[in-house]
Design brief:
With 482 residues, the protein is of the alpha+beta class. It has helices spanning 53-65, 170-186, 227-246, 292-300, 306-317, 321-328, 331-340, 347-364, 376-387, 393-406, 410-416, 425-438, 440-447, 453-464, 471-481; strands at residues 3-14, 69-70, 73-74, 77-80, 90-93, 100-108, 114-126, 130-133, 144-147, 154-160, 199-209, 219-224, 254-259, 264-270, 280-281, 288-289. It folds into three domains: 3-296, no CATH class; 304-416, no CATH class; 425-481, Arc Repressor Mutant, subunit A (Orthogonal Bundle), CATH 1.10.10. It contains 15 helices and 16 strands. α6 packs across α8 (347-364), α9 (376-387) runs antiparallel to α10 and α13 runs antiparallel to α14 (453-464). The protein is elongated. Bound molecules: zinc ion and manganese (II) ion (MN). The site of zinc ion has 8 residues, from loops.
Length: 482
C-alpha cells in the first residue's frame, strides 16, 4: 500500500524580549533556579498581569514576515489545566481572535517547484515553568523540583494549516522548520536556540491510502527538542501508522511522546480537545486594539528577510551560492560578513574564508560569532592581503590563528613574526640557483620536458622560506634558468 502523508506543526518560539509577558521579571537563561520570579509570574492571589508591548510587537513582526493578516481586535484567553509548572492553574494564551491569521510560507517543494505552506494563526501566550526530575526519567525519579524562571516568558505559537497546502513529506518538514527558524532569527524575534528550549515543536501527522478520499485520525507528538528527533519521530510514526492500516486496524486520535533513547513514540494520553481546556476570555486583560499605524511602524522597521538577503549576497557581492546559504543560515554570521564588506576587495574570498576558516575556529573553540574577538576590519584586511598575493593562504591561516589568540592586526603580526613575503628578485634568484645546484637529477628531468618537476623545486624553496616565497615568481625564475 502507498500512503499520502499530512504533517502539521505547532511551533513554540520564546521571544527575545528583556522581560516576561505580564511582569517585569527578566528573561534570562543563566539565572539560578527561581531567581527571576515575582508574585505575578508565580500566580499569587490578587496580582494582575500587565501586557508587555514589545512582545506584541514581536508577534506582529513574525506575523508580517510569515504573510499573515494582523487582526485589529485580539483577545487573551485562559487555557485551563492543572500541572505543577503552571502556578495559576491556567495559561494566558489566545483562542478566538489571535493576533495574526491566514499566513503562508514558501518552501522548496518535493517536486522542485516552490510550495506555499499555509499558516493558520500565530498567537501570543506565556510559557510555563520547568520541572527538574531527580533522575533522568520521570518514572525513575524520587522527587521533582520546579523552577519558575520560565513561567511567564513570552512565546509565539505558529500553527500551520492542515487544510491549506499542508506539508507532505519529511523533506518538506525539514525545509519548513529550518525556514521558520531562520526567519524568526533574522527579524530579531527569537534567538531560537534549540538547546535552551527556545524553539519547540508539537507535530500532527495523519496518513491516507493513495486515492482514498479521507485521511485517518491524526496523532500528535509533543514537545520535541531537536530537528533530528522530530524527523526520527515522524519516520517512526509513518511506519507505525501504515502498518496498522495495512493490517486492517484503526488509528486512534491520541498524543504521543518521542523516546529519544529507544527512538520510538509512546502513547501519552488520548488527545484532549479544545473544550477540555475550558477557554474563556481573561477578565484581567482588556481586548487588544491594534491600530494600523502601529502595524505600519513595525512593517517599516522590519529588517531584510533572509531570502531577500541571500539573493543580494549572491548578486551584489558575487559570493558562491553555497557560501551564501551557509552564511545566511545564521543571522549573526550574515551581519559579520556584511560588516567586513566595506573593508574588503575580494568578497568571494571573504565568503569562502568565513564558511571555512572562520566557522572552523568558532567550532573548535565552541564560541558563537557574537563572542568572536577579531574585528571585521582586521578580518577583511587579512583577506585582502591574501587576495593581493601579499601572503599565501597557508601563511594567512597562521596569521588568522594569531589574530584570534592575541587580538593583533594582520599587518602587525606579519611584521612581528617575520612573515613578510620574499618578493625581491635577487634574493629569490640566489635561492633558485642553490636549489637547482642541490638537485641536479630533478633539473635534468625538467630539461627533458618533465614540467611537473618544477613543483618539486618550488616545494623545496617554500620549505626553506617557511612558505614566504612568492610561488609564481619562483616558478618563472626556475623555468627561465632551465
Ligand atoms: Zn514575574
Ligand atoms: Mn501553545
Amino acid at each position: 500500500m502507498d500512503f499520502d502523508v499530512i504533517i502539521c506543526f505547532e511551533i513554540h518560539a520564546e521571544l527575545s524580549t528583556k522581560t516576561k509577558l505580564f511582569c517585569r521579571c527578566p528573561v534570562s537563561y543563566d539565572a539560578a533556579p527561581n531567581e527571576n520570579i515575582c508574585p505575578v509570574c508565580t500566580g499569587h492571589p490578587g496580582t494582575l498581569p500587565v501586557l508587555n508591548r514589545k512582545a506584541v510587537e514581536c508577534c506582529i513582526r513574525a506575523g508580517l514576515a510569515l504573510n499573515c493578516n494582523i487582526n485589529s481586535r485580539s483577545i487573551f484567553a485562559r487555557k485551563n489545566y492543572f500541572y505543577p509548572d503552571l502556578p495559576k492553574g491556567y495559561q494566558i494564551s489566545q483562542y478566538e481572535c489571535p493576533l495574526c491569521e491566514d499566513g503562508y510560507l514558501e518552501i522548496p517543494g518535493d517536486d522542485g517547484k516552490p510550495y506555499i505552506v499555509g499558516i493558520k494563526r500565530i498567537h501570543l501566550e506565556e510559557d510555563a515553568g520547568k520541572l527538574v526530575h531527580s533522575a533522568v526519567t520521570f518514572e525513575a525519579s524520587e522527587y521533582s523540583l520546579v523552577d519558575y524562571n520560565r513561567a511567564g516568558v513570552p512565546l509565539i505559537e505558529i500553527v500551520a494549516d492542515h487544510t491549506k497546502n499542508p506539508i507532505r513529506s519529511l523533506q518538506e518538514a525539514r525545509s519548513y522548520l529550518g525556514k521558520v527558524r531562520q526567519i524568526l532569527q533574522h527579524i530579531g524575534v527569537s534567538d531560537c536556540v534549540i538547546e535552551q528550549g527556545q524553539f519547540r515543536c508539537d507535530v500532527n501527522i495523519s496518513l491516507r491510502q493513495v486515492k482514498s478520499p479521507d485521511f485517518n485520525e491524526r496523532v500528535e507528538i509533543k514537545n520535541m527538542a531537536s530537528f533530528k528527533s522530530i524527523i526520527e519521530a515522524l519516520k517512526y510514526e509513518i511506519k507505525r501508522q501504515s502498518e496498522i492500516i495495512e493490517s486492517g486496524g484503526e488509528i486512534s486520535q491520541e498524543t504521543r511522546l518521542f523516546d529519544e533513547v529507544k527512538m520510538v513514540t509512546v502513547p501519552m494520553r488520548s488527545k484532549e480537545d479544545a473544550p477540555d481546556y475550558r477557554y474563556f476570555p481573561d477578565p484581567d486583560l482588556v481586548e487588544l486594539d491594534i491600530d494600523r499605524d502601529f502595524v505600519r511602524k513595525i512593517k517599516d522597521d522590519m529588517p531584510e528577510l533572509p531570502g531577500i538577503r541571500l539573493n543580494r549576497f549572491i548578486k551584489d557581492f558575487g559570493i558562491s551560492e553555497e557560501d551564501a546559504h551557509l552564511i545566511i543560515g545564521k543571522r549573526d554570521l550574515s551581519d559579520y560578513f556584511e560588516s567586513c564588506v566595506p573593508y574588503c576587495t575580494d568578497l568571494k574570498k571573504l565568503g569562502s574564508w568565513i564558511t571555512n576558516e572562520l566557522i572552523k575556529v568558532l567550532n573548535e573553540n565552541s564560541i558563537s560569532i557574537k563572542k568572536f574577538p577579531v574585528a571585521p576590519k582586521d578580518f577583511a584586511r587579512l583577506i585582502t592581503l591574501i587576495s593581493c598575493n601579499n601572503i599565501t593562504e597557508k601563511i594567512g591561516r597562521l596569521v588568522f590563528k594569531d589574530m584570534f589568540e592575541t587580538g593583533g592586526t594582520p599587518d602587525s603580526i606579519i611584521e612581528e613574526k617575520g612573515l613578510k613575503p620574499i618578493q625581491e628578485t635577487d634574493i629569490l634568484e640566489k635561492m633558485v640557483e642553490e636549489i637547482m645546484k642541490e638537485n641536479p637529477g630533478v633539473v635534468s628531468r625538467l630539461k627533458d620536458g618533465k614540467k611537473e618537476s618544477v613543483n618539486f623545486l618550488i616545494g623545496k624553496i617554500m620549505k626553506r622560506t617557511r612558505g614566504r616565497a612568492d610561488a609564481k615568481k619562483v616558478s618563472a625564475l626556475i623555468l627561465k634558468k632551465v
